[in-house]
Amino acid sequence: MKNYILVFLSLLVISLFSACHKAHEASTAEITFIEPSINDTIAFGTELHVEGTIGGDGEMHSYTLNIANADNDSIYFSKSSSAHAESYAFHEHWVNNLTDTTFVKVTIEVELNHEGAKTSKTVNVVCLP
């Protein structure tokens, strides 16, 4: 009888832990860019400064920052964090080495939970040769 009570209590504790853990996963996040601003112009050889914050309504599971060609999605720079957190701060630099005038998109994509829910935000800039 004692074993049945221990098994029952163990299952109860595991169930409660799982329920509490799931309740803290994020379902939404707010992404704020400090830099760049929409349609900033980046001269050849200068840095594109990417900085901002991500705040979730619970624990988020990762984020990825991509700097890519807006027309063909070629990736120029990518950085990821797989740390679980309720907020992130990002701060990266990429030097414009493009030889043609190029529309570039800076995208932050956040994985909110283990079910794969995501949210993202994009800021477009222009890189000059």
Description:
There is one protein chain. This protein has one helix at 2-23; strands at residues 29-35, 41-42, 47-60, 62-69, 75-81, 85-95, 102-111, 118-127. The protein is of the alpha+beta class.
Q: What's a concise summary of this model?
A:
The chain is α+β, with helices and mostly antiparallel strands and 129 residues long. The protein has one helix spanning 2-23, and strands at 29-35, 41-42, 47-60, 62-69, 75-81, 85-95, 102-111, 118-127.
Chart the SSEs and their pairings.
Elements: H1 2-23, E1 29-35, E2 41-42, E3 47-60, E4 62-69, E5 75-81, E6 85-95, E7 102-111, E8 118-127
Helix content range: 10-25%
Summarize model confidence as the mean pLDDT: 89
Tell me about the biggest sheet? Answer: 5 strands, mixed
Please give the radius of gyration in angstroms: 21 Å
Strand arrangement within the widest β-sheet reads: 2-8-7-4-5
Order of helices and strands: HEEEEEEEE
- Span of the ends, CA to CA: 79 Å
Keywords summarizing the entry:
8 strands; 3-stranded antiparallel sheet; 129 residues; 5-stranded mixed sheet; elongated; single chain; alpha+beta
